[in-house]
Structures are given as structure tokens and as C-alpha cells.
Amino acid sequence: MWFKNLQLYRLPTGWDMSIEKLEEQLAKKPFNPCGSQDMESRGWLSPLGNEVLVHAVGGQWLIALGFEHRLLPSSVVKQEADERAAEMADQQGFKLGRKQMKDLREQVAQELMPRAFTRRRRLHAWIDPVGGWLAVDAPSQARAEDVIEELRHCLDSFPLTLVRTERSPVSAMADWLAGNEAPAGFSIDQDCELRSVTEDKAAVRYVRHPLEGDEIKGHLEAGKLPTRLALTFDDRVSFVLTDKLEIKRIDFLDVVRDQIDGQAEDEEALFNAEFALMTGELGQLLPAVVEALGGELKQEATTEVHSAVTKSAAGDPPF
Predict the structure, then answer these.
(1) Are 161 and 304 in contact (CB under 8 A)?
(2) How buried is 7 (Cβ within 10 angstroms: 0-12 exposed, 13-18 middle, 19+ buried)?
(3) Pairwise CA distance, residues 100 & 113, whole Å
């Protein structure tokens, strides 16, 4: 149980949801496979594969949203419909009209759907009720919104906020690269991406490449700004920080993983040990990242996160 990415949200101050209440609310929408005419199904799964929907270890909670999607490409439906339309045209002596073709495609889709293969996936979310964090293990904010949306459907009130900091990640990362000096507790690794703010959106990426020297500074002086930067925290956790304050490509180093080698007696014990260790490390990493960005931006009132905030990230390219 090791997260690869973190899409970060803040729980409301004084959030008093109990684990029993959350379990009860999620049980309103358990995961069920697609019906014969369903293109997609989603619902809550047990992270451990038992009947418990909210898995707790050391005061940290884990939930999982399951998805099942039918694989029925529109090209397959069109091909089958075109073949039937050609046969009907030969029998009738004239081609089908636009509305007839539309109805035929819908009929073909309904007939093929029950026989279409399905693909399943799941997204995990970590809830830290003490630290006030909710983090979804998703590669983009748009994907994480699937989890947040389902939580809103199940909970009576869930006013989450995105994490905002006094300094933008772009500004901070530019300063770190220009001065070739990471904030306290961090070190700069060898991956980064810089993008131009001009209309041409020119970009340059460095992978396993030293980031000190005049080359990087030249890109910064030319107007390119960092959108992704690889960092390591406390020689224990490596990750990529993005301009949207996402934590990506998380890698818990051997000094962390070796702490549980040979200590877990079975799969459940290993799962719990990894989750406890992961949340312990992330519980120190996240406040350090926020502090490196000048601290959290104080807001006069809590603003609920809406779907529109995250849909714009749907096309984010992988790093």
C-alpha cells in the first residue's frame, strides 16, 4: 500500500465525522458490477477486500472507490451498423436515412453492450482526520474529482478546499533552481520541466540531468517557468512537485521500506504496516512542502471545491 500520487485537499476545520458515521454513509453506495445496459458503474469497495469500507490504522483512514467500464468502441458499433445498413439497402433498394441510421446504431449498441468486455480499476483516498488532510492517489485533479464527487453524494456536508499557499509552486521552484538551493530539509533531484508563458508554450524537459549551471538559468532568464521539479525530502521520500501543488511520482526510499522487511506475518499485516509507514512519512512531508511554499494561505471563509476547479486538469500530460 504505497501511494504514487497525491491530489491534496483540506478537510474543514472542526470536521467531526466519526469512522462509524463515514462507514454508514459510504455503505449507501457500494460497488456493483455493470448491469447489462450500463456503460459504467462506480461505488465504494473495501480497501482490504473484506466488508469494511473505511480501513483504519493508527488514526489514519483509507477508502477506495471502484469503477467498472464496458469496452465498446464507437468504431465497432459503427462497423456493425454499416454492415446491417448495407444489407437492408440491398433488400429495400434504397439507403437508410439519417434518422434510421441513428436508430440502427443505438439498437446495435444495446445488443452488443451485454457482450462487451469490462475493465475495473480503483482509486484510493487517504483521510487524516487529525492533520486535516484528504489525499487521493490519482494522476490528475480531474481523476481525483471522481472520488470527491462520490463523497459529496454520500455525505450530507463535505466542504473541502484545495490547498493554497502564500507562494505559488512556480515562483518557489524558479527561485530554488535559480539559486541552486532547495528549501531546508529538501534536495533538488535531476528531473524538471520548464514552460514558456508566451503563446508558443515552448517547453523543455530534463530527465536524469544535473539542474545546476548556466543552462537552467538561461531558460529561466528567457521567460520559461518551472512546472515540475523532482525533489527528495529528508533523504527518505522522492517526488515531483507540480505547478498545481500536486505531489507526483512518489518513491519511498529504501531507508523507509526496509523498516518493515520480514516483520509482517501475513498480507493484512503487511498492508497495515505499509499504510502506517506511508502515512507517517507523508504526515511529515506535507507540512514541510507547505512551509517551503510560505505556509498556507489564510482564507476568511471556507470555499467548497467544485467540479469546475478540477475539470480543467483533465488533459494534463504525464511527466
Answers:
(1) yes
(2) buried
(3) 20
Q: Is the pLDDT of residue 141 over 60?
A: yes
Query: 99-123 b/e with 16+ CB inside 10 Å = b?
Result: eebeebbeebbeeebeebebeeebb
Q: Degrees (nearest 5) of the Cα angle 24, 30, 33?
A: 175
Helix segments in the chain, DSSP class H: 19-26, 74-92, 98-112, 141-154, 169-179, 214-221, 254-257, 267-292, 307-311
Q: How far apart are CA 245 and CA 248, in angstroms?
A: 9
Decide: helix, strand or coil at residue 230: strand
Cα-based distances in Å from 179 to 133, 175, 212, 226, 246 = 31, 6, 9, 14, 23
Pairing relation of β-strands 203-206 and 186-196? antiparallel
Residue pLDDT, tens place only, 114-133 = 888 878 899 999 999 999 99
Q: What is the pTM of this model?
A: 0.82
Cα-Cα-Cα-Cα dihedral sign, residues 15, 18, 24, 26: positive
Please answer whether residues 10 and 286 qualify as being in contact, where contact means their C-beta atoms are separated by less than 8 angstroms.
Answer: no
pLDDT at 230 over 60: yes
10, β-bridge pairs: 133, 161
Report pLDDT for 305: 52
For position 299, what pLDDT does the model report? 58
Mean pLDDT of the region 37-52: 90
Amino acid making up residue 239:
F
3-state secondary structure of 140: coil
